[in-house]
Amino acid sequence: xxxxxxxVEGGALPFEWKAMHNRLVSGSAAxxxxxxxxxxLNARPSRQYWQEAAMHVETAVEGGATVVSVNHRxxxxxxxxxxxxxxxxxxxxxxxxxxxxxxxxxxxIPTDDSPLRKGRVELYELGVxxxxxxxxxxxxxxxxxxxxxxxxxxxxxxxxxxxxEPDPTVLPPDSTLSAAAERGAQxxxxxxxx
Amino acid sequence: xxQEAAKQLRRQTLAPVAMSTRSWDRVDAQLRExxxxxxxxxxxxxxxxxxxxxQEMAAGKxxxxxxxxxxxxxxxxxxxxxxxxxxxTIHDLxxxxxxxxxxxxxxxxxxxxxxxxAGLTDIxxxxxxxYRAKQVRAPRDWAQRWQEAAQEVGWQGVARxxxxxxxxxxxxxxxxxxxxxxxxxxxxxxxxxxxxxxxxRCRELGLLEGEWVTEMERAxxxxxxxDTEVDLSDLKPDELEELDDTLLGVADVxxxxxxxxxxxxxxxxxxxxxxxxxxxxxxxxxxxxxxAALEEYAAHxxxxxxxxxxxxxxxxxxxxxxxxxPDLWHEMELPEADAPAACARxxxxxxxxxxxxxxxxxxxxxxxxxxxxxxxxxxLNWVGARTARDLRPLYRALEQQPxxxxxxxxxxxxxxVNKREERGENGARIITYTVKDD
Lengths: 194, 438
Description:
Helix content of chain A: 25-40%
Number of helices of chain A: 5
Strand content of chain A: 25-35%
Low-confidence stretches of chain A: 7-20
Structural class of chain B: alpha+beta
Number of strands of chain A: 9
Strand content of chain B: 15-25%
Helix content of chain B: 25-40%
Oligomer: heterodimer
Number of helices of chain B: 14
Distance between the termini of chain B: 27 Å
Radius of gyration of chain B: 28 Å
Largest sheet of chain A: 4 strands, antiparallel
């Protein structure tokens, strides 16, 4: 998950406005940030990955702060990179594979033409039995193939670990987000105080 | 003034922060209620379908392949997509896929609810637009569903320009939903989602009429499971009874419907019904936060843990006021030196409970006012107490002996309509304010 904190203060508001309308002002600030962040993620090129992330942008207002979260598996990984993980790498979890029933040892990176990417499915959803899958090796490199309809189809490469550099472009720049929060708050004030 | 306020708005450096879990505790409890309820209803339907099919087989009305097809059709009708004739194999993908769809739907519903709740305080963007967020294998005809839903609700809050735009408070969102929710997803495995629509565009579309801001605020205070009902007319009486037992205190099953009690939410109830909910047996996985909060309050008063206070306030506020609007009284004794400021505050702004009080006791039977020397007695005569709460049944639900009093809740305000001052037997000052609900 990605969490951001933005503080918007309405310090000059009279007491009664603070009590009655503070949540509408901060709610509108949060709303503009959510709108901007969702649109930004939606515009990132992908078949579905970032569009799903855009569906899961949420905000919460706590005290004077707006917290924005992107509740999407992998979004945090792209934003922060793998530097914070043990060894600075993403490795297989070792949990039980739904296909083989054995602990996972490698990560499967689907190729662009892989039926996993085209069908937007997990490996176990392909409906291929373990005995119909095969691993081809060449030195340190390995690839996973599956017998689908009598044809050997490349599913992806098998890697022990992945290193990812942080990608700050996952989210809009700080200045843009802050401007959105201010814009939302000002709009709310204009609506409430015509 | 907006200029002045705008000058106070300042930028902060954006930084990743750990999310506080306190404010999500109640959301978490409501999610658990919802998940338990949906799983219960879903399982009851599945079980009923399997049982009936098995009975038909036993009666010789269906062969096994026919029974399997019938179950598969039932699954498809519920929105599940069977992945081929693999029943009984070790790779029963249909079960996994079904589980995934159910799980993903629940996760998406939580996201949809959170976005709606936050969106109802975003008056800069009072509308939503339905759009296709992701591609699916068999898209539904959402244009037709939108038309039908709009007609069903009389186009209330719905744009008439051919777009899929409506106010957040429009009833079209519920009408559109297979689940009866006002937030996405609107059907199983759906790729449709919503995005915000600005105040300016909603105004251009002629959607902003009347007290639209007030309506948004009112809707923002509703909890996730308020007014959540499911039509179970497809189940037989014995199946309904079994479901009622399964759901325990989470929901009531009656007249062919299951209705969530909104145990951890804000749906209003009279004191006796609320007490019944507090005392109900709950499944292990669903906490009863309001009961736990009341137990803390009964034990520790205002020294109760801070994190339990929101649930306590939800409990007190959702308990409906007493019906008969009685006359009640409350007294405070103040040192002479403090009395002028306290009285000035009451006369200017009305009486409100102290900031550290969740509720203030008001009594029915008046007693003769007495004050010690050097002290001032301030009495409040609350006439026609419209908003007084009877919290005694709630305490009895915890097997506690309550005060014989009704209560004014934190956040409420009483305005002064009359003031009378007199001297007590020992010469001490007695000030009596007649107050009414604000």
